Structure formats: C-alpha cells, structure tokens
C-alpha cells in the first residue's frame, strides 16, 4: 500500500464519520452532548475495524474509538483536527506530486503503465 492510498482511505473514513454524526444531530431538535456524540461515532467506526477494506487503517480507527472511551475524550474534535491536517498537507502538494500520485494509482489499481517501453523507442 502506498502512502497516498493510506491517507485517502483515512480521509474518507474521517469525512464519512463526521457526515454521519452531523446527519444524526440534524435529525433531533435537542442538544446532543459530547458523550452521546462519542457513542454515535463509536457505533459508526467500530464495524470498520473488522472490515477488511479498512485493514491498513485499522490501528488508527481503534485509537480514535479509544479516545471516546476515555473520560473527557472527544472523538469529534480529534476527527476535525485530523481532517484539518489532511487538508493542509493536500494543499502543500504541487502539480507534479498530484500527477505522480495519479500515475501510480492508474498503474496499481488499473494496470495502466505510463512509462515508456524500450520497444516503443525502436
């Protein structure tokens, strides 16, 4: 697994978890306390620990769930912090890095080789 796939998968889980939380909060008219927010996020994240699709980020998901079990822990704040860090690192990438990541993705996932072959030059 490449670092790009790792960060894309982690970013996707973080975004989906926050969207799930905010949709759950929007369905109620009452204030949702931190303990209940942690419970909503834990219920969303725990099945992903056993899912083989999330094998490479399994440890990170476990750590996030454990934050909510600590007294005074707030999963929502941690997820928002991680999301900000991911967005900042994505903004720092230049065009060449984006192109390199795209070419690697095409090769790894779809088998499209972008390198020149020696036979094509002859």
Please, could you describe this protein's structure?
This protein is mostly helical. α1 packs across α2, α1 packs across α4 and α2 packs antiparallel against α3. The model has no long low-confidence stretch (mean pLDDT 84).
Mean pLDDT: 84
Query: What is the first-to-last residue Cα distance?
Result: 34 Å
User: How much helix, percentage-wise, in residues?
Assistant: over 70%
Radius of gyration: 19 Å
Largest sheet: none
Write down how many β-strands occur, each being a DSSP E stretch of 2 or more residues.
Answer: 0
User: What general form does the structure show?
Assistant: elongated
Order of helices and strands: HHHHHH
Strand content: under 5%
* Tally of contiguous helical segments: 6
User: Which stretches of 5+ consecutive residues score pLDDT under 50?
Assistant: none
Structural class: mainly alpha
């Amino acid at each position: 697994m490449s670092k790009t796939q790792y960060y894309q998968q982690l970013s996707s889980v973080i975004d989906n978890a926050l969207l799930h939380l905010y949709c759950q909060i929007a369905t109620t008219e009452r204030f949702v306390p931190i303990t209940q927010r942690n419970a909503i996020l834990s219920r969303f994240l725990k099945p992903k620990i056993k899912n083989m699709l999330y094998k490479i980020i399994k440890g990170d998901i476990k750590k996030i769930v454990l934050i909510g079990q600590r007294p005074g822990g707030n999963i929502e704040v941690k997820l928002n912090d991680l999301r900000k860090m991911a967005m900042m690192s994505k903004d720092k990438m230049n065009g060449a890095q984006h192109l390199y990541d795209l070419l690697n993705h095409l090769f790894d996932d779809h088998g499209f080789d972008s390198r020149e072959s020696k036979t094509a030059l002859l």
